[in-house]
Amino acid sequence: MLIVIPARGGSKGVPGKNIKLLNGTPLIHYTIKAAQCVFDNKHIYVSTDSPAIKSIAEQTGVDIPKLRPSYLATDKSNSRDVILHAMDQFKLSNNNEDPDLIILLQPTSPYRNHTHIREALKLYNDDIDMVVSVKETDSNPYYVLFEEDENNFLRRSKESNFTRRQDCPKVWEFNGAIYIINPKSIRAQPIGHFQKIIKYEMDEKSSIDIDTPLDWKFAEFLGK
Questions:
Q1: Which of the two ends of the chain, N or C, has the fewest CB atoms closer than 10 A to its terminal CB?
Q2: Domain spans of the chain, in order of start
């Protein structure tokens, strides 16, 4: 089992956010401590290119033996490449064998906790590609999302005759908190190509994903 916590140093929306203090605690500590409530430190892999993040993360007791290569820490780097690199590092110290399970926990979700992780794990089996945490979206494509047609007129993203939002089918969005991934699936293809995905639903507060200064202020408010 391999728990990957990706934390590059070059965040743009909120500079230095992974180690910025959220109500007195470095942001990345929330995720590491949630993971530590479920898994031994030996399974937790913090993937970072930043010596500062490495130092702050290791205050929790996790060991970060080496930094992530710089080519995997650019704006164009994707989660799959980071996961594959972490898996390769795992193989070096485990008889050249892949982990039997990958769990990706992004540090931008401070209110995802150990209970969420345990509940999501119960949904996983080897016959699927992934269990992913979601929240019900406010932007329902049957009701409030529109696209421009060839004449620049707005049309519903999904054609429908619904007149009340509550009559629309429920639509889910990934909230970025938990990805429980089949290692064979991630070796074979990008996450966006997965077909066998099971949702783990989370509430709105637990789904907070910090990407902008406004997200940060809201997370601070909720934490207080």
A1: C
A2: 2-223
Q: With 0-12 CB in 10 A as exposed, 13-18 as middle and 19+ as buried, what is 176? A: buried
d(CA 169, CA 35): 34
Question: How far apart (Å, rounded) are the C-alpha atoms in residues 142 and 188?
Answer: 33
Confidence of residue 34 (pLDDT cuts 50, 70, 90): very high
2-223 classified as CATH 3.90.550.10: yes
Query: 155 and 202 in contact (C-beta within 8 Å)?
Result: no
- Under 8 Å between Cβ of 120 and 79: no
Find out whether 67 and 50 touch, Cβ atoms under 8 Å. Answer: yes
Per-residue tokens: 21? 């203090």
**Does residue 168 register a pLDDT over 90?**
no
Q: How many CB atoms lie within 10 A of CB 106?
A: 21
